[in-house]
Design goal:
The structure holds three protein chains of three kinds.
Chain A: E1 4-10, E2 13-19, H1 25-32, E3 51-54, E4 57-60, E5 73-75, H2 88-95, H3 105-118, H4 124-130, H5 142-155
Parallel strand pairs in A: 1-5
Antiparallel strand pairs in A: 1-2, 3-4, 3-5
Helix pairs in contact in A: 2-5
Chain B: E1 2-5, E2 19-22, H1 27-37, H2 41-45, E3 49-53, E4 56-58, E5 71-76
Parallel strand pairs in B: 1-5
Antiparallel strand pairs in B: 1-2, 3-4, 3-5
Chain C: H1 19-24, E1 39-45, E2 51-57, H2 59-62, E3 67-72, H3 93-100, E4 105-106, E5 112-118, H4 121-130, E6 132-137, H5 144-148, E7 174-182, H6 185-191, E8 194-202, E9 214-219, E10 225-229, H7 234-245, E11 252-256, H8 272-282, E12 286-289, H9 292-298, E13 305-313, E14 319-331, H10 338-344, E15 354-362, H11 376-394, H12 398-405, H13 424-433, E16 445-454, E17 459-467, E18 473-477, H14 485-497, E19 504-508, H15 525-552, E20 559-562, E21 565-568, E22 579-580, H16 581-586, H17 588-591, E23 595-603, E24 609-619, E25 626-636, H18 643-662, E26 693-698, H19 720-732, H20 743-762
Parallel strand pairs in C: 1-12, 10-11, 14-15, 18-19, 25-26
Antiparallel strand pairs in C: 1-5, 2-4, 2-6, 3-5, 7-15, 8-13, 9-10, 9-12, 13-14, 16-24, 17-18, 17-23, 20-21, 21-22, 24-25
Helix pairs in contact in C: 10-11, 11-19, 12-13, 14-15, 18-19
Classes of the chains: A alpha+beta, B alpha+beta, C alpha+beta.
Chain lengths: 160, 81, 763
C-alpha cells in the first residue's frame, strides 16, 4: 500500500510524516514520530490514555487516522510544559499524589487542560463528567479531582 | 520446648499428627528432627510451604531461631498481588 | 524492633522522584521502547474454548511479505513438571510453558497457538490470518458446578486431586482441596441460638491495569537475551523465561520498564518468551504488545467463586461456629487463590469451632493470576455479607457484632498462628466513631459495613546505597515502582541518613544491576525492600563513623551519627567539627574509597492488615442502578511512610472493589467466548461513577519493622464488595447473593421481591 505524506503541526512545531492510509494517529505518534508520551490502553476509544487535542478539540488519537492530521494542529502531553517549567496541572498532579502507576496520567493531563481552557471553574461534577472518558485504575479518582480543582484555582490566579 | 502445628493437608506427612513438641533452637534443627521421625518430610516442606514462627510468616525459613515456648505453624505459601 | 521516635522525613507528603517524568510523558513504559531493526510480534489465539490441536500449517504465513519468523508450540522446548518455588504463589513451570504457547490442546478461548514476527504489525496480522490450524472441538467446561460434577469432562486428563487424606481413584477437575478446622463445628452450631447459612457467587473479573502487557526482546547468536518488560517482578520474568526456553538464568537479562498498573496481573509471563523465540528465529529485536482484547481473553483474571458460609451465634452476638465451603475457578491450569481465600475468610474473628474447605477447580477459561489480596475479596465478600445478615437477625449494629468477636493481639488466627500487634479493633472503633457512620440517609439509600484482611508478605529483597561525591544519595533496588514506592524508599533512606529527601534518588535496576528481589506484590515492597534500604543506610552510617573516626584519629566506637553528621559521642574528649555526609563523601578517596552500603535479607514479620469500610448507596428502583454516595475506608497500615500514596492505595482499592461489586464481570457465551472483552462493555469505574473516597489511616505499629510498617496495598480491595452489597441490601431490603450488583440483576431482584410481596398480599 502506498504511504501518504502528511504535513501537520505538533505542539506548535511543523511536522511531516509518511503513514499508511489505515494507520491510526496514535500509532503514527508513537511508532513513527517517537512521541511515546501518548499511551495506548485500548485502541478502541474507551480509556482516554491516548488523549490529544486536534485543532483544540480533545480526541482519542486511537480513533483518528494519521492522514486526518493533515493541515491540523496537534497538542500532545509533550507540549504541555512550557520549556523548563511544568504546567500548573502537572505540578498539582504531583503535589496531590494524583498518579500511581502514571500510565493514564498523560491523557488525564491533556484532558484536564482541555477542560480548564474551556471552563476555568468547573464544579466537582463537571470535572468528573469531563474526565469520565479517561480511565484510571489506581487512584479511585479522588486525588485526581482534587488536583484538578487546585490547578484550576492556581490558573485562575487564586492563592492555593 | 517449641510447639509445632501441621494443618490437615500436611498431616499426612506426619502420620496424621497435627501437633508436636520439639526441643529445637532453630528451624534447621526442627527440619533435622522431623526428618529423623518422618524420613523424606523435609523435601516435602522446603520451598513448598510457608512457616509462621511466633506469628511471623516466613516464606523460606532455615536459620530462623526457635525459642523455648515458640509456636511454629506450617502454612500454605501465600501469594500476593 | 519498632522504635518510638520522631520522624523528620517519614510521613511527609513529598513529590515522588519519578513524578516529573510521569506528568510530562517522558517515563518509558513497556511499549515505549524501540531498538534499531526492531520488528513486531503478534499471537494467533484459539477460537475455541476447548479443542485438540490436530495440525498447524504455517508454510503460507512464513512466505508472506515482511514475515521474518513463525513459531508454534512445537518450536518451544518441552518443559517438565516442576513446582515454581522461587517467586510467590503456587504454580508449575510445565503449566506456565503450556499457557504461554499451547501444545496439543487449546484450553481456553484466546489460548496462544502460534506467533509471527514481521516488519510491521499489519504484516504480522495478515500472516496470522494465513496460518491454518485444524482443531477437533471438545466440550468446554465453563462453570464450577459443571466442572465439579461426577461425570464432568476433564480439562486436564489424568489430573488427580491433591490434598485428600487418601489417594483418589479417579481423575477430577478439582486440582486441590484444602481443609482448615478447629474445635467441633457441629457442636458449635448446636450451641448457637441462631444459625444462618447462604451461598454467594462472584464472577470472573480482571485487574484492569490500563497498560496492556508489553515487552521488547532481543537474543544474540550466543544465546544471550535481553528483555525490556512491563512487569511487577523482573527476576521472575528472568527465571520463568529461562525455564520456558531452556536458557541459563545468567543468559537472560530483564530490564524493568515503568509499569502501567498490575495489581497482581503482571506477576507472571505471557509474551516474553515468545518474543525471545521470535527474536532468535528472525535475528531481530522483537516488540510484542497485547491488545486490550487479548489482555481480557488471554492474561490472568481473578477466579469466579461459589462460597457457602454458615455461622452460628449466641443471642449476644458471640460466634459459636463458622463453616465455609469455597470453590474457586483456576482457569485451565491449577493454582487459583483458593488457599489464601480459605485462610482469610474467618481471619478477623475469634471462634472456637470452624471448618473451612477449599476447592481449586479447573475450567476452560484463562489461567487465573493474582489480583490484589488474591482470593480474599471473594471469600470475605461471602462471610462479611452473611455477618450482616446475622447482625440484622440479632438486631445488632454490624460494627458491634464484629467488635464482639474481633481478633486482637494474642488471638489465634483461623489460619494457624497467633496474631502479634494488630489494629482490627482500632479500625472498628474508628468506624463506629466516624461522622460518616452517623449521616442520616434518605429514601432508597442504605449503609453497609464490612471488614477486610490481608496477610501482607515479607520475602527476599536487596538494596544498595551509593553516596555520591557531593553527598547526595543513590538508592538502587529491584522492585518495579507501581504506585510511588521510589518515594517511600527515598523517605526511608533520608530518615536513616539524616539528609533532606530531595538529596536522595532511587533507581529500579535490572536483573544484572540489582541484587535479587522478590516481585512487587503481596504488599511487600515498603515493608521488605524498605527494610533492606534501612539496613543499607545503617551500613553507610557504620562506614561513616569509621571514616570520621579515622579522620579524627579516634576509635569508631567513640563516634555517633546524628542529624546527618558524624559527631564524637558525649563525653569523648576530641576537639573536632562534626562531619556531614557530604564532607565524608568528599574525603572518601582518602579514607578508604567510595561509600557503598548494601543489604540483602529475607524479611520476616510482615504485619497483617485489617480494614473496615462504610459504604452509602442509593438505588434507583426504576433502573436497578446502584450509586455510591459516600465511601469511607479505614485501615491499619502500621506506619504510613508517604500518607498521600497510602491514601491512594486505600482509595484505588476501594474503587476496584466497588467496580467488582457493581459492574465488573466476564460475560461468557455458551461456547466459552468472553463477550465483553473491551473497556466499553467490561465497565470499570470512571470518574463520574464515584464520590470522593474518605480515608482514615490507623497506625498500630508492626513490631517487626523498624518504623512499624505493615504494607498497605492489597487490604483495601477486600472489604468494599460486601460493604457495597450490604448497603444495597439496606437500601432495598432485598439480599442479592451474587455479584455484580449490576442494574439488570438488581432490577430483576427488586421486581421478583415486589412480585412475591404482591403474591403474598394477594394470597
Amino acid at each position: 500500500m502506498t504511504k501518504v505524506h502528511v504535513s501537520t503541526t505538533i505542539n506548535g512545531q511543523p511536522a511531516e510524516f509518511l503513514c499508511e492510509p489505515s494507520q491510526s494517529l496514535l500509532d503514527v505518534l508513537r511508532e513513527d514520530l517517537q512521541l511515546t508520551g501518548t499511551k495506548e490502553g485500548c485502541a478502541t476509544g474507551d480509556c482516554g490514555a491516548c488523549s490529544i487535542t486536534l485543532d483544540g478539540t480533545l480526541v482519542c488519537s486511537c480513533l483518528v487516522l494519521g492522514v486526518e492530521a493533515a493541515g491540523k494542529s496537534l497538542g500532545t502531553i509533550e507540549g504541555i510544559a512550557k520549556g523548563d517549567e511544568l504546567h500548573p496541572i502537572q505540578q498539582k498532579f504531583l503535589e496531590h499524589a494524583a498518579l500511581q502507576c502514571g500510565v493514564c496520567t498523560p491523557g488525564l493531563i491533556v484532558a484536564t487542560k482541555s477542560l480548564l481552557d474551556a471552563n476555568p471553574a468547573p464544579s466537582e461534577e463537571e470535572i468528573r463528567y469531563y474526565l469520565a472518558g479517561n480511565l484510571c485504575r489506581c487512584t479511585g479518582y479522588d486525588k485526581i479531582v482534587r488536583a484538578v480543582q487546585d490547578a484550576a484555582k492556581t490558573m485562575r490566579g487564586e492563592a492555593a | 520446648m517449641a510447639r509445632v502445628y501441621f494443618p490437615d493437608h500436611l498431616a499426612s506427612l506426619t502420620e496424621g499428627v497435627r501437633e508436636l513438641e520439639a526441643h529445637v533452637s532453630s528451624f534447621r534443627d526442627l527440619l533435622e528432627w522431623l526428618e529423623g521421625r518422618y524420613p523424606g518430610i523435609s523435601d516435602k516442606l522446603i520451598g513448598k510451604v510457608a512457616v509462621a514462627i511466633d506469628g511471623d510468616i516466613i516464606h523460606d525459613p532455615f536459620l530462623d531461631p526457635i525459642e523455648p515456648g515458640s509456636e511454629v505453624h506450617f502454612l500454605y505459601r501465600i501469594e500476593g498481588g | 524492633m519498632s522504635e518510638a521516635r520522631d520522624f523528620r522525613s517519614i510521613g511527609q507528603r513529598v513529590i515522588r522522584p519519578d513524578g516529573v517524568d510521569k506528568v510530562t510523558g517522558r517515563a518509558a513504559f513497556g511499549a515505549d521502547y524501540a531498538l534499531p531493526g526492531m520488528i513486531y510480534g503478534r499471537v494467533l489465539r484459539s477460537p475455541h474454548a476447548h479443542a485438540r490441536i490436530v495440525s498447524i500449517d504455517t508454510k503460507k504465513a512464513a512466505r508472506m511479505p515482511g514475515v521474518l519468523a513463525v513459531v508454534t508450540g512445537a518450536d518451544f522446548p518441552s518443559v517438565g513438571s516442576e513446582e515454581i518455588t522461587g517467586g510467590e504463589g503456587a504454580g508449575n513451570y510445565k503449566d506456565l510453558a503450556t499457557n504461554v504457547m499451547a501444545r496439543d490442546k487449546a484450553l481456553y478461548h484466546g489460548h496462544a497457538v502460534a506467533a509471527v514476527a514481521a516488519t510491521s504489525v499489519a504484516e504480522a496480522e495478515a500472516a496470522l490470518a494465513a496460518i491454518k490450524v485444524k482443531y477437533e472441538k471438545l466440550k468446554p467446561l465453563l462453570d464450577l458446578d459443571a466442572a465439579m460434577a461426577d461425570d464432568a469432562v476433564l480439562v486436564e486428563e489424568g489430573l488427580f486431586t491433591s490434598g485428600l487424606p487418601e489417594k483418589p481413584t479417579k481423575p477430577s477437575n478439582v486440582a486441590t482441596v484444602m481443609e482448615l478446622k478447629r474445635g467441633d463445628v457441629e457442636a458449635g452450631f448446636r450451641e448457637a441460638d441462631i444459625v444462618v447459612e447462604a451461598t454467594y457467587r462472584t464472577p470472573t473479573v480482571h485487574q484492569g491495569y490500563i497498560e496492556p502487557h508489553a515487552c521488547l526482546a532481543t537474543i544474540n547468536q550466543g544465546g544471550q537475551a535481553t528483555i525490556w518488560a512491563s512487569t511487577q517482578g523482573h527476576f521472575d520474568v528472568r527465571s520463568s523465561t529461562a525455564k520456558v526456553l531452556g536458557l541459563n538464568v545468567s543468559d537472560v537479562r530483564v530490564i524493568p520498564t515503568e509499569i502501567g498498573g498490575g495489581f497482581g496481573g503482571k506477576t507472571t509471563i505471557y509474551v516474553e518468551p515468545v518474543a525471545v523465540l521470535l527474536s532468535k528465529r528472525s535475528g531481530r529485536p522483537v516488540k510484542m504488545t497485547m491488545s486490550r482484547e487479548e489482555v481480557f481473553r488471554a492474561s490472568g483474571p481473578a477466579s469466579a467463586t461459589k462460597c457457602v458460609i454458615k455461622i452460628g451465634a449466641r443471642k449476644d452476638g458471640t460466634l459459636t461456629a463458622m463453616s465455609a465451603w469455597l470453590a474457586y475457578e483456576a482457569g485451565a491450569f491449577r493454582g487459583s487463590s483458593m488457599a489464601p481465600g480459605a485462610m482469610c475468610v474467618f481471619a478477623p474473628y475469634k471462634v472456637d469451632n470452624f471448618l473451612i474447605r477449599g476447592f481449586d477447580v479447573l475450567v476452560n477459561k484463562p489461567k487465573v493470576a493474582a489480583y490484589r489480596a488474591p482470593g480474599a475479596p471473594q471469600s470475605m465478600y461471602a462471610c462479611e455479607s452473611l455477618l450482616d445478615e446475622l447482625a440484622a437477625k440479632l438486631g445488632m449494629d454490624p460494627i458491634d457484632l464484629r467488635l464482639k468477636n474481633a481478633v486482637e493481639e494474642g488471638a489465634q488466627a483461623a489460619y494457624g498462628p497467633k496474631f502479634n500487634a494488630i489494629g482490627f479493633r482500632e479500625c472498628l472503633e474508628a468506624a463506629k466513631r466516624h461522622p460518616n457512620y452517623k449521616i442520616p440517609l434518605g429514601q432508597d439509600e442504605g449503609r453497609g459495613v464490612a471488614a477486610g484482611f490481608w496477610f501482607n508478605a515479607g520475602m527476599q529483597s536487596s538494596a544498595e546505597i551509593h553516596i555520591n561525591e557531593d553527598g547526595t544519595v543513590t538508592v538502587i533496588e529491584g522492585n518495579p515502582d507501581i504506585g510511588g514506592s521510589r518515594a517511600s524508599m527515598a523517605l526511608m533512606a533520608a530518615e536513616e541518613l539524616g539528609v533532606p529527601y530531595e538529596r536522595v534518588r532511587v533507581q529500579i535496576a535490572d536483573t544484572e544491576s540489582a541484587g535479587y528481589t522478590n516481585t512487587t506484590g503481596g504488599s511487600r515492597v515498603t515493608f521488605a525492600t524498605g527494610m533492606a534500604v534501612i539496613q543499607a543506610a545503617r551500613d553507610i552510617i557504620g562506614q561513616c563513623k569509621q571514616r570520621a573516626a579515622a579522620t579524627w584519629g579516634i576509635d569508631a566506637d567513640m563516634v555517633d551519627w546524628a542529624d546527618g553528621k558524624a559527631i564524637p559521642k558525649p563525653g569523648v574528649n576530641a576537639d573536632v567539627k562534626p562531619l556531614t555526609l557530604a564532607a565524608i563523601a568528599a574525603n572518601a578517596g582518602r579514607t578508604g574509597g567510595p561509600l557503598l552500603g548494601r543489604a540483602s535479607l529475607n524479611a520476616r514479620g510482615a504485619g497483617p492488615g485489617f480494614s473496615v469500610n462504610i459504604a452509602d448507596v442509593r438505588v434507583d428502583r426504576d433502573t436497578g442502578k446502584v450509586d455510591v454516595l459516600r465511601f469511607t475506608a479505614i485501615q491499619d497500615v502500621g506506619k504510613a511512610i508517604h500518607p498521600g500514596y497510602v491514601e491512594g492505595q486505600m482509595q484505588g482499592g476501594a474503587a476496584q472493589g466497588i467496580g467488582w461489586a457493581l459492574n465488573e464481570e466476564y460475560v461468557y457465551s455458551k461456547d466459552g467466548v468472553m463477550e465483553n472483552a473491551g473497556f466499553l462493555d467490561y465497565r470499570i469505574p470512571v470518574a463520574s461513577d464515584l464520590p470522593m473516597i474518605d480515608t482514615q489511616i490507623i497506625e498500630v505499629p508492626n513490631p517487626s519493622h523498624p518504623y512499624g510498617v505493615r504494607g498497605c496495598g492489597e487490604t483495601p480491595i477486600v472489604a468494599p464488595l460486601a460493604a457495597v452489597a450490604n448497603a444495597t441490601h439496606a437500601a432495598t431490603g432485598v439480599r442479592i447473593r451474587e455479584l455484580p450488583l449490576s442494574p439488570p440483576r438488581v432490577l430483576a431482584a427488586l421486581d421478583n421481591a415486589a412480585g412475591s410481596a404482591a403474591g403474598k398480599a394477594a394470597g
